[in-house]
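re: ur msg from earlier - yeah i can do the TNX complex, just paste it... oh wait u already did. ok heres what im feeding in:
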Amino acid sequence: MPPLTKQLGDVIPVPASVRPVPAASFTIIPGTGVSTVPEASGVAAYLAGELAKTVDGTIPIGPGGAIVLELDPALAAEAYTLAVDDTSVRLRGGTRQGLFWGVQTLLQLAPVVPGGVIEDEPRYEYRGAMLDLARHFFTAGEIKAHVDLLAQFKINHLHLHLTDDQGWRLEIPGWPLLTSVSGGEGTGVDGAGPGFLTLAEYADVVAYAASRFVTIVPEIDMPGHVNAVHHAYPALTADGEPVPRRTDAEVGYSSLVAGKEETYAFVEDVIRTVADVTPGPYLHIGGDECLSTPAEDYRTFLSRVLPLPGKYGKRAIGWHEIAAVDLPEAAVVQFWRIEAADENTARAAAEGHRIIMAPADRTYLDMKYDADSKLGLDWAGHVDVRRSYDWDPADRLPGVAEEALLGVEAPLWSETLRSVADIQYLTFPRLPAIAEVAWSPRSARSWESFRGRIAAFGPRWEAAGINYYRSPEIDWS
Ligand code: TNX
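and the outut:
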């Protein structure tokens, strides 16, 4: 029998409440059964499949199994409880989603599960990661594999940055040149590429993510970051003249033309298409870094475009620059800068808009860890693991307090990425740090505790072939 080295609370994100019973434990071995209510049979099958890998044997599903999955409507939707004694593991979720998060906790503790009771639920409803497919494309299969890794840390939204100056990465029927030209060979930064998701592939990613209780948040970035549109469709430029492909990493030079009716026909077609294939509630319209859009044009453009997600049944999200204009009621503002304050974001919060915290100097996974990092940028400074962990979203911006926060997101821009190994190197171990900031109550977390708990993931990542950064801040031995 493997030695009992783990404590019940050795989980990331750290649970809200942990009551160990040190004398008890339950060891999962081949043949240990899972019993479930019918509504949770999908979660049970997932658990059995993962445990089978852990114990290298079969985990049958059926009545009488010692691992019991149940739903408990008295719990909040994403909440779960895990109770472990010498003879059983009982997992209850408020919904299947809560149960699935409980399963993630159990999988981190398996095979020798310490005795006691965990009661857990998230601090924020939006716990996000972002992947930029525009600067470097990743395939549907690669995105799905990434979803699996995110879900382990109870991340429940994956924001896909689908369009930018370099490339356009989602098929839009009626606008075939977006992808045939701007999703073709050489459309990544430095000529990498090609790639785009067909609508069928996008739907497959959305469905797979849903099976991991992760909601896809599509972003079509506008009115800036649109050189790929203008390169594919010169009729949409101000003078109708063609513009060259751009695969450098400059920002802020392109803009949809606010004074041209064709712009809005294009935008509405795109938003309707994306809304139609997106079951999740959000549609991100970008709005960042419009350095070449006159302020009046920016206002004109957004006043027409921000209501469109709502028209097609979605809630608009935009980078916090959108807070400079009057926002439709449900619009969500995503703060991304490094400054200590932002008046417009604070005003939006005061008006009742929800805010997603993604300050670059804390949550940007594309920042270098330190001066020696071979991948990443450094415009927001270096973001070591402690910097990504040791902050609180409710303290970040004056005027944006706990009630205003929808949640936290960790964006990964892909200018310097070329492979899945590159994604993983920048994601681990910082994403788990940010996941804990987003899930765990403030009172339950501390850097010293996180630092100890994350070390256990080194051997697991190695066994799974995941490329993580062995930060010197952590004692991996
Ligand atoms: C700023 S963050 C951008 C992106 C870049 C990123 C690189 C934001 C809303 N815009 O266009 O990829 O910096 O870190």
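cool cool. The first helix runs from residue 41 to 55. ping me if u need the other ligands too
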